[in-house]
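Researcher: Sequence recovery benchmark, item below. Answer with residues only.
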């Protein structure tokens, strides 16, 4: 494939992924800790985040992660605390796809009127939107030289369970009170955190990280499992119909594999390899070196595979594992699920042609990106189902 076609293809995939990615709206004053949260959740450096942000409205910008095929987009609204901020444009942008609002405020900063009024407006219009309030820079409220308590000092509601300095505790409670009579029905949760730089000398560096990812998980859309049961396989192709449940199964397994700490990087590609093997059996094709090489080159320069299996999975699973809300269902990762699902669909497309001695590179890439979009559509439908009745 020539480089221009490769670039076009990569862009098409990115566009399709972007359209279906989860948008997390970071709403907070200047220097409240927004970038620090993106850094902790993605594992990117501040510099990577800084250059990765692209303007999307006059006052906001968006950071796609992973950039080649984003499963999550961080929308950073700036201009808050400056002059008069008109959120109309940002609201329009965010409301199209955003799944949740992550409000960021320094724990010791009581001046949150502008922020709270935006949240209030938003929840009037979108009552089901979950709101997570990250209360940052906890150590600003510690005595000089003090480190964090050995255990995370807050419960799942964000309420102190251990000794927290009185002024800090009061300030956290005051911030909670600002949201007390928030309109709407969606979850409102509070997560005190302190995401520091290593040179700050605090341990752990990302204090409250687990609590934040747990809150994100809880706020995310439900219902995928049920939706998956209704997924229609291609009706008039026997092989692809047979392959479909395998793909769903492996994709679900890939998502579930990430529950095991540190298993993500190892387990997901393993699951994907297994899936490719069983799909090849269905199509009566075996994966030899040449076939694998052809398939890999169909998926562009390998960016997709890299993005899926390495770039962000470990962080992403903590962030978007969202689907397992139904009773007994596994907590799953949208990222692992969707990329595995897409890989499986692309492999079916590839294998069906390979049987006939044909290779259709663009078709494989298109099948991949269409399937990625499809997989993420399940999540928005899941959200729609979860929110039915409460949305305005
Ligand atoms: N100790 C500590 N410092 C933090 C925390 N969050 C942010 N900071 C520090 O506060 C400063 C601003 O943090 P950023 O994450 O860049 O905040 P931001 O909201 O992205 O800032 P702007 O993009 O300039 O609006 C940096 O020096 C951070 O290191 C936190 O939870 N704990
Ligand atoms: Mg920033």
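Model:
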């Amino acid at each position: 494939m020539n480089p221009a076609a490769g670039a076009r293809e990569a862009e098409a995939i990115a566009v399709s992924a972007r359209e279906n990615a989860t948008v997390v709206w970071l709403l907070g004053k200047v220097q409240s800790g927004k970038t620090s949260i993106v850094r902790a959740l993605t594992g990117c450096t501040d510099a990577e985040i800084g250059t990765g942000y692209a303007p999307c409205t006059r006052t906001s910008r968006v950071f796609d992660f992973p950039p080649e095929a984003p499963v999550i987009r961080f929308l950073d609204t700036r201009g808050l605390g400056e002059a008069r901020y008109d959120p109309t444009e940002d609201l329009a942008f965010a409301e199209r796809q955003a799944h949740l609002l992550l409000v960021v405020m320094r724990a010791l900063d009581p001046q949150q009127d502008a922020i709270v009024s935006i949240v209030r407006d938003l929840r009037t219009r979108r009552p089901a939107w979950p709101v997570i309030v990250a209360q940052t820079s906890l150590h600003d409220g510690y005595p000089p030289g003090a480190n964090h308590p050995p255990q995370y000092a807050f419960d799942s509601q964000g309420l102190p369970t251990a000794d927290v300095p009185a002024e800090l505790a009061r300030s956290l409670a005051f911030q909670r009170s600002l949201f007390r009579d928030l309109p709407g029905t969606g979850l409102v949760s509070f997560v005190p955190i302190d995401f520091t730089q290593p040179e700050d000398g605090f341990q752990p560096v990302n204090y409250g990280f687990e609590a934040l990812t747990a809150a994100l998980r809880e706020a995310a859309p439900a219902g995928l499992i049920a939706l998956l049961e209704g997924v229609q396989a291609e009706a008039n192709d026997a092989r692809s119909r047979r392959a479909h449940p395998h793909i769903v199964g492996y994709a679900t397994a890939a998502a579930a594999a990430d529950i095991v700490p540190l298993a993500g990087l190892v387990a997901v590609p393993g699951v994907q390899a297994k899936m490719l093997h069983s799909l090849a059996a269905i199509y009566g094709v075996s994966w030899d070196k040449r076939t694998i090489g052809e398939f890999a080159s169909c998926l562009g320069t390998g960016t997709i595979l890299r993005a899926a299996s390495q770039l962000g999975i470990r962080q992403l699973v903590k962030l978007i594992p969202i689907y397992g809300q139904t009773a007994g269902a596994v907590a799953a990762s949208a990222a692992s699920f969707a990329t595995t699902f897409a890989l499986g669909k692309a492999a079916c497309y590839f294998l069906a042609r390979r049987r006939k001695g044909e290779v259709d590179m663009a078709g494989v890439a298109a099948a991949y990106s269409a399937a990625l979009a499809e997989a993420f559509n399940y999540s928005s439908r899941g959200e729609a189902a979860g929110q039915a009745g409460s949305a305005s």
